[in-house]
């Protein structure tokens, strides 16, 4: 049965997090389609992975037989994360925008799993794997908006997930999530609600679409 790798990185709970609410909806519909499937779950806010150290970085360019004991230990942690990615038939990532980009915990996970000669390079090991990213944000950074130039989430993740890792990338973008909390954005609440509802519908539809694709 198919395996889903589900990664959340929001520092907030599902009740307070737009990205977690949407990834939860995706996962719910995925599990309905795959009741006997496997979900590998990582909550990077609750259990962050180590940031890439010099030893872990260097170990990626040295044959395992030449690893020092320290390199072997830290590289084993990288390999564990890489194997989870490689085992997945589909990947789901919650990537809220914090200060114009992704959470540092998600960046740490990416730094660990990007390994040239394995997950990146001429024949990426997860090439073609569908990955759905829920890229929530407090405002709007869509084309034509005043802050379009500050969009460093979708641009960066496209470069990493699609271009470097060769994955089949799709975004779901709930925006204006700060409208209910910020009085200055009160007039935008209807747009926020529409964006939220659209994201939840998109999550359900994408989960079902992937289920059909993997069953074919």
From TrEMBL:
Instruction: State the protein's name.
Output: FMN dependent NADH:quinone oxidoreductase
The EC class name is oxidoreductase
Q: Which InterPro entries match?
A: Flavodoxin_fold (IPR003680), Flavoprotein-like_sf (IPR029039), FMN-dep_NADH:Q_OxRdtase_AzoR1 (IPR050104), NADH:quinone_OxRdtase_FMN_depd (IPR023048)
Q: What cofactor(s) does the depicted protein rely on? A: FMN
- Lineage, top ranks: Bacteria, Bacillati, Actinomycetota, Actinomycetes, Kitasatosporales
Which positions bind FMN? 10, 17-19, 136-139
Catalytic activity from the UniProt record:
2 a quinone + NADH + H(+) = 2 a 1,4-benzosemiquinone + NAD(+); N,N-dimethyl-1,4-phenylenediamine + anthranilate + 2 NAD(+) = 2-(4-dimethylaminophenyl)diazenylbenzoate + 2 NADH + 2 H(+)
The source's domain of life comes to: Bacteria
**UniProt function note:** Also exhibits azoreductase activity. Catalyzes the reductive cleavage of the azo bond in aromatic azo compounds to the corresponding amines. Quinone reductase that provides resistance to thiol-specific stress caused by electrophilic quinones.
Keywords in alphabetical order, please.
Flavoprotein, FMN, NAD, Oxidoreductase
The record's similarity note reads:
Belongs to the azoreductase type 1 family.
Task: Domain (Flavodoxin-like fold): give its ranges.
Answer: 3-173
Q: What's the subunit arrangement here?
A: Homodimer.
Co-factor: note: Binds 1 FMN per subunit.
Quote the EC number.
Answer: 1.6.5.-, 1.7.1.17
């Amino acid at each position: 049965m198919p395996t889903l790798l589900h990664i959340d990185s929001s520092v907030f709970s599902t009740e307070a997090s737009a990205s977690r609410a949407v990834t939860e909806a995706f996962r719910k519909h995925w599990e309905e389609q795959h009741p006997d499937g496997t979900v590998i779950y990582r909550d990077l806010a609750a259990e962050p992975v180590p940031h890439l150290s010099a030893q872990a970085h260097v170990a990626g360019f040295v044959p395992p037989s030449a690893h020092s004991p320290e390199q072997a230990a830290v590289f084993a942690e990288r390999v564990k994360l890489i194997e989870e990615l490689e085992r997945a038939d589909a990947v789901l990532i919650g990537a809220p925008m914090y200060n114009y980009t992704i959470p540092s915990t998600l960046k740490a996970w990416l730094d660990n799993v990007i390994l040239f000669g394995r997950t990146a390079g001429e024949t990426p090991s997860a090439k073609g794997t569908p990955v759905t990213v829920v890229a929530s944000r407090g405002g709007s950074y869509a084309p034509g908006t005043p802050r379009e130039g500050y969009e460093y989430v979708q641009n960066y993740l496209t470069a990493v997930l699609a271009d470097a890792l060769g994955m089949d990338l799709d975004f779901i973008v709930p925006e204006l999530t700060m409208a209910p909390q910020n009085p200055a954005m009160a007039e935008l609440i209807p747009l926020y609600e529409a964006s939220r509802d659209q994201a939840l519908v998109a999550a359900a539809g994408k989960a079902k679409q992937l289920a059909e694709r993997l069953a074919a």
